[in-house]
Amino acid sequence: MSVTGITASNPYSNVNDLLSNVRNFKIIESTLREGEQFANAYFSRENKIKIATMLSDFGVDYIELTNPAASPQSREDCEAICKLGLKAKILTHTRCTMEDAKLACDCGVDGVDVVIGTSQFLREHSLGGKDMKAITKQALEVIEYIKSRGCEVRFSSEDSFRSDLVDLLSIYRAASNAGVGRVGVADTVGCASPRQVYDLVRTLRGCVSTDIEVHFHDDTGCAVANSFTALEAGATHIDTSVLGIGERNGICPLGALMARMMPTSRDYILSKYKVHQLKAIEDFVAETVEINVPFNNPITGFCAFTHKAGIHAKAILNSPSTYEILKPEDFGLSRQLYRYVHFTSRLTGWNAIKSRVDQLGLKMTDDQIKEVTGKIKQMADLKVMTLDESDALIRSFHLELQQAENN
Ligand SMILES: CC(=O)SCCNC(=O)CCNC(=O)[C@H](O)C(C)(C)COP(=O)(O)OP(=O)(O)OC[C@H]1O[C@@H](n2cnc3c(N)ncnc32)[C@H](O)[C@@H]1OP(=O)(O)O
Ligand SMILES: O=C(O)CCC(=O)C(=O)O
Ligand SMILES: [Zn+2]
């Protein structure tokens, strides 16, 4: 590390930023709360227990469950998960009401995540026209009650980024003074840009002494960037769900957050999270909610480590780091799982084909490989080629060479 904090491997790193928690943050895993709000989600008791257990083993700090007030089954499942004795702490999410808070504490949770809308939209259309004074009074009563029951309490404003800044800071400060462990900032509609996130979280960091949790929806594609930026600005806890499932198009995905943090905080991530379990967790959740893992999913998408263009293929065959910032081995994945180098398109190059010729155990000169590469490209211009077809073309070209040599 140089004096300025700029390293050869990452010229943008800035170790001088004292606010930043990118190497020291906690995850509040909300697949079993926010994730249950995903359109396709239905979690049986058995699947909830399996998901909670997998996430706890993975190393998340907290698991957030659906409000027990949602249904009798939700309450019973919450009680059952609390009794599992998992390493992760169990939280439940509630409205800011005494009834919800009482039910939550009765379930045996470690903590209660209380939320209430603070934007004009929510105050008018969800909360029947409540003003900030009434909301603050209600919040303080609920906070006091949960504390009296010996549970951790977090207070969050819903729709924080469309709320008045003075209103927001005032209610957070009141919650902080009332002794909550965390305050939460929620981008409920996914409208915030990274710069807005940095400004709000940094301002809040100066106003409260509590931990700061952040919750970002992905409506405008910023959930991961916003989570990262929030950590840089001093947030301490990030909400995630497996594959990002949640209301509408969901929140910051656990896997994508791991991918984002790895180049920045590799040692921290590897010491804290069993990232090689990520694929199994994603596959299980995907199957449970009947979706495919997206093709472009960080780390586990089917082509996350596939290189197609000839220029890329040549360089990564020499050194994967040329075009890869993440290492599949870190996540317990073998390159064989992916079609690591694509040999069958018109974008391929002779260096890629040379590696395939080697894999097939054939001997050819560079000029011969260039010639057969030309043939593959000609065929790939006409149709989608399979690997078998490309291999057959290479083998028959090789046979012709041998026959010519023997004559
Ligand atoms: C942004 C988020 O994701 S917040 C979390 C969302 N999660 C959920 O909604 C959990 C699943 N929800 C449910 O099962 C139900 O909505 C319940 C059990 C919570 C409430 O059901 P119902 O009593 O039938 O009310 P309904 O859902 O129609 O309306 C919500 C009520 O809560 C009130 N409310 C909404 N948010 C809050 C809040 N944060 N704090 C206090 N009250 C709230 C509304 O004003 C409304 O009150 P009303 O009964 O006087 O009209
Ligand atoms: O409780 C929170 O912090 C977030 C609630 C929520 O899901 C949201 O506002 O999108
Ligand atoms: Zn949400």
UniProtKB/TrEMBL annotation:
Keywords: Amino-acid biosynthesis, Lysine biosynthesis, Magnesium, Manganese, Metal-binding, Transferase. Its EC number is 2.3.3.14. Residues 25-279 form the Pyruvate carboxyltransferase domain. Belongs to the alpha-IPM synthase/homocitrate synthase family. Homocitrate synthase LYS20/LYS21 subfamily. The keyword Manganese applies. Gene3D superfamilies: 1.10.238.260, Aldolase class I. One of its GO terms (cellular component) is mitochondrion. Pathway: Amino-acid biosynthesis; L-lysine biosynthesis via AAA pathway; L-alpha-aminoadipate from 2-oxoglutarate: step 1/5. The lineage of its organism: Eukaryota, Fungi, Dikarya, Ascomycota, Pezizomycotina. It comes from the Eukaryota. This is homocitrate synthase. Its cofactor is Mg(2+); Mn(2+). InterPro entries: 2-IPM_HCS-like, AIPM/Hcit_synth_CS, Aldolase_TIM, DRE_TIM_HCS_fun_bact, Homocitrate_synth, LeuA/HCS_post-cat, PYR_CT. One of its GO terms (biological process) is lysine biosynthetic process via aminoadipic acid. It catalyses: acetyl-CoA + 2-oxoglutarate + H2O = (2R)-homocitrate + CoA + H(+). It comes from Hypocrea atroviridis (strain ATCC 20476 / IMI 206040) (Trichoderma atroviride). PROSITE patterns: AIPM_HOMOCIT_SYNTH_1, AIPM_HOMOCIT_SYNTH_2, PYR_CT. GO terms for molecular function: homocitrate synthase activity; metal ion binding.
